[in-house]
Write a structure and sequence with these properties.
The complex is a heterodimer. Chain A is built from 15 helices and eight strands. Chain A is an alpha+beta fold. Chain A has a three-stranded antiparallel beta sheet with strand order 1-2-3. In chain A, strands 6-7-8 form a three-stranded antiparallel beta sheet. In chain A, strands 4-5 form a two-stranded antiparallel ribbon. In chain A, a hairpin with a 7-residue loop joins strand 7 and strand 8. In chain A, helix 4 packs antiparallel against helix 14 and helix 11 runs parallel beside helix 14. In chain B, helix 1 packs across helix 2 and helix 6 runs antiparallel to helix 7. By secondary structure, chain B is mostly helical. The longest helix of chain B is centred in the first third of the chain and has 34 residues. Chain B is globular. Chain B has one domain. Helices cover about 70% and strands about 0% of the residues of chain B. Chain B contains 14 helices and no strands. The chains are: A alpha+beta, B mainly alpha. Chains A and B meet through helix 4, helix 5, helix 7 and helix 14 of A and helix 7, helix 10 and helix 14 of B.
């Protein structure tokens, strides 16, 4: 008589060391083998979109900080661009330069966390602390500029909340000089570590057509080999003035689109961000950062969709204005939300330990998924 | 040691208990020191300071933690099998503590001079597996169960390369007694087994490379047996929360910690006895040269603990540098690489020792 066997359902999260917040993964497992993965979200739902309808346009900005709390500058950026498009106002050059520098610094900070947590999930705890140490430099720069370390409310419609500190340019250059060797150190310690490659190469392979079908963006899409970057495809602000490359996954140690490729795309992107900052930092024109802020923000009737390249992918704001001082509707296209969808596809046939590696390489932020 | 105490006291039971107290003290003190060392080593590797407030450089931190642990409420999950749940930590600790019975800390401080010391250590340390399986099963937690299954598979697999290397050393030295193996490697580090042992001529030089390979294999496999990174998958924090002891708290959890640190030192001691001369000094004894014979056992104790701690430090160093392997990769390392190499090593050492 054959023994009756049954599969085990394991609820990973919402309280689990490496689900990156309050994600619950319902794993159906047979021993260690994954049969299916079902992500359950919504533990961090804060009604952002509904809240936005009850507030004036500038009042929404602090709430955008809390979407992707690891890249708050990028969230501000997308929202203010959308509203400025709606208002049809011109932004001073100085503001544009500072915004780009801040967004790129934020991209480095966010990727540092992504890489660090991906490594820590796989068991490398030392690179985690090294990278958080470097992130601290960036947070200090932000703190110097606007007083906040995580949720900045820095970019305002038509301008900025504060001008940069007199020391900002010097400190940023210091950071860049410090940061370049750190990337080499990271590559020696983690990226090309044999065990790390064993754990991430050929694991969670995302083919390009699947990535496109699911609507993935950011490093998840680029890791599969498509050089799609909103900064290049649909340049916003002044990104068309800078010279930078779009790194893609090449399958250097495994197959194109595996966890290692997504990880390595982030490492390379940090270097490209440094390049953009280097080009921008010496060319900040003089001027007043608040001169273009409108006295009364009451956009005409209409709709607008603006998108920016956030560290996690394409962040889009769709705003409907009915001519009032508060938006009629704000819809956010959150990159993490879309990227998480591929989880079920990626995990099939892998082991429990791989789920963690795959989730880490997708780099989700629950604040943005649940909104 | 036992004989000495027996002559002094004249009561078998008390003498036996006193002998047992010595390794227990060592294991407890080492666990306290080891946890502190682990925290400091990891902190300095990660550009931090680690515990600094309690005592000089935080050396009292583990004592304070222990006090807290003893006061904690003892929670047993509702669905747990209480009997097994309570026995498991004791069994795990017994397994690691009992191994100390035959480990010679110096020529005078030796729990029991059994002739089959190595065999005994290999056998008694397998007891840990039973305890871990019980812990994982009885807690009625899926993470615990997965962790226990992983631990059982891992520890049993990695006993094979360990046993093969031990076998080759037994062939070479002709004894299973840990004390005798230590005695053979006397007078200079050139006589340590890693340098071919206390023999002369061509065969010594032929042995050296295979001894290095053997030392590496046994170090790696003992690392896996005590569940340290990169082989810490049974308690993989980021995957299984805490593995087989997820549900434990208070002093029962403390027993697992004690067993872990006890095991760390025990396997380091075995490796240092087999390959690095055990308690023998690498440079000769001060006691011998100044004519104070009573000093020699103390020096031996110092060297033994120094060697053990060096290996423990290497374990910590690896832990804070490397990521963790996956279950299947762990098995691949064992069955596809370590066991064949250990076999070849065994055969070649056998041939050389006949020559």
């Amino acid at each position: 008589m054959a023994l009756k066997t049954e599969t085990m359902v394991l609820n990973m999260g919402p309280q689990h060391p490496s689900t990156h917040g309050v994600l619950r993964l319902e794993l159906e497992i047979e021993g260690e083998l994954i049969l299916s993965v079902k992500p359950h979200i919504g533990y961090l739902h804060r009604c952002f979109e509904k809240h936005a309808e009850a507030m004036t346009y500038p009042q929404v900005i602090p709430y955008t900080d809390r979407l992707d709390y690891l890249a708050a500058m990028g969230n501000n950026f997308g929202y203010v661009i959308a509203v400025e498009k709606l208002l049809g106002i011109q932004i001073p050059e100085r503001v544009e330069y500072i915004r780009v520098i801040m967004a790129e610094l934020q991209r480095i900070a966010s990727h540092l966390v992504a890489i660090a947590t991906n490594g820590a999930d796989i068991g490398a705890l030392t690179p985690f602390l090294y990278l958080f140490r470097d992130r601290e430099y960036i947070l200090t720069l932000f703190e110097m500029t606007c007083g906040a370390r995580m949720l900045y409310n820095y970019m305002w419609i038509g301008g900025l909340s504060h001008d940069i500190h007199p020391d900002f340019v010097r400190k940023t250059k210091e950071f860049i000089n410090h940061f370049r060797p750190t990337v080499t150190e990271l590559n020696n310690l983690l990226t090309f570590n044999k065990i790390f490659i064993e754990r991430t190469a050929n694991v969670g392979i995302l083919p390009l057509d699947t990535a496109i079908n699911f609507g993935a963006s950011g490093p998840v899409l680029r890791g599969s080999g498509l050089p799609f970057d909103v900064r290049r495809e649909d340049p916003y602000s002044i990104y068309n003035r800078f010279d930078f490359e779009i790194p893609t996954g090449k399958g250097l140690v495994g197959t194109v689109g595996d966890c290692w490729d997504r990880y390595y795309v982030r490492v390379l992107e940090m270097e490209q961000s440094v390049r953009i900052i280097e080009q921008a930092i010496d060319n900040i024109p003089e001027g007043d950062v608040q001169s273009a802020i409108p006295k009364r923000i009451k956009p005409p009737k209409g709709t607008v969709y603006a998108r920016v390249e956030n560290p996690r992918g394409e962040l889009g704001y769709f705003i409907i204005s009915d001519g009032n001082i508060n938006p009629f509707r704000v819809k956010v296209r959150a990159p993490s939300f879309v990227n998480l969808e591929v989880m079920g596809e990626l995990c099939k046939g892998h082991l429990v330990a791989d789920v963690i590696a795959i989730l880490g390489s997708l780099d989700i932020v629950l604040g943005e998924i649940d909104r | 040691m036992y004989q000495f105490l027996y002559n002094l006291i004249g009561n078998e039971l008390i003498a036996g208990l006193l002998v047992a107290v010595v390794p227990l003290t060592i294991i407890l003190v080492f666990a306290l020191f080891g946890i502190w060392l682990e925290r400091k080593v990891s902190a300095h590797m990660q550009d931090r300071l680690g515990p600094m407030r309690t005592g000089w450089h935080g050396w009292l931190q583990t004592v304070a933690d222990l006090m807290k642990m003893l006061q904690k409420e003892d929670i047993v999950a509702t669905g747990a099998d209480k009997t097994l749940y309570n026995i498991a930590p004791i069994l795990v600790f017994t397994g690691s503590f009992a191994a100390y019975a035959v480990i010679p800390f110096s020529s005078k401080l030796l729990g029991s001079e059994v002739e089959i010391g190595l065999f005994y250590v290999l056998a008694i340390s397998s007891l840990v597996v039973a305890g871990i399986l019980m812990a994982g099963w009885s807690a009625n937690n899926k993470y615990s169960l997965l962790g226990a299954m992983r631990a059982a598979a891992q520890i049993i697999s990695y006993e094979i390369p360990t046993a093969l290397i031990v076998l080759s050393m037994v062939m070479l030295t002709g004894t299973l007694s840990l004390d005798k193996i230590s005695q053979m490697q006397t007078s200079s580090f050139w006589n340590w087994n890693i340098f071919g042992g206390a023999i002369f001529g061509l065969s010594k030089f032929l042995l050296i490379p295979f001894m290095f390979v053997g030392a590496m294999i046994i170090f790696i496999s003992t690392l896996a047996e005590v569940n340290r990174v990169p082989f810490d998958i049974p308690e993989a924090e980021s995957e299984l929360v805490a593995g087989y002891f997820t549900e434990y708290c208070g002093m029962k959890w403390g027993m697992f910690m004690l067993a872990e640190y006890g095991n760390m030192f025990a396997v380091s001691a075995i490796v240092s006895i087999l390959f690095f001369g055990g308690y023998q000094s690498p440079i000769g004894y001060l006691g011998n040269s100044i004519g104070a014979q009573w000093l020699v056992p103390f020096e031996q104790g110092f060297w033994f603990i120094a060697k053990g701690l060096t290996l423990v430090f290497v374990q910590m160093w690896l832990r804070w540098t490397l990521p963790r392997l996956r279950v299947d990769q762990l098995m691949t390392v064992c069955w596809k690489y370590l066991i064949p190499y250990a076999f070849i090593n065994l055969i070649i050492i056998g041939i050389i020792s006949i020559l």
